[in-house]
Amino acid sequence: MNFNVYLDDDTAKRLQEATEVSNESRNAIIRKAITFWLSYSNKDKWSDDVLNFQGIEDFPAFENNRDDLTLPNEDPLS
Questions:
Q1: Higher pLDDT, 45 or 19
Q2: Is residue 40 within 8 Å of 34, Cβ to Cβ?
Q3: Other Cβ atoms within 10 Å of 53 Cβ, number
Q4: Mean pLDDT in the chain?
Q5: Domain span including residue 48
Q6: pLDDT, tens only, 6-42
Q7: 3-state secondary structure of 59
Q8: Dihedral of the CA atoms 65, 52, 36, 31 (nearest 10)?
Q9: Which pTM value belongs to this model?
Q10: How many domains does the chain have?
């Protein structure tokens, strides 16, 4: 698919400098930028691996460690 992208002068200059440093074409850099943005821009939910995680059967619940906690001698914020 082909389309035109209009950039402000500063962005166009920075893109040109990037092509010289990376030895890649403008189109290649723009493709990579769009691919990167599309990969990470819609991460507003937990992955299916996290959502489907059922826990580890033999692992104790984190609440079990609360009994070992002690209160500070004095309030650190007072």
A1: 19
A2: no
A3: 10
A4: 88
A5: 9-68
A6: 999 999 999 999 999 999 999 999 999 999 998 888 7
A7: coil
A8: 170
A9: 0.52
A10: 1
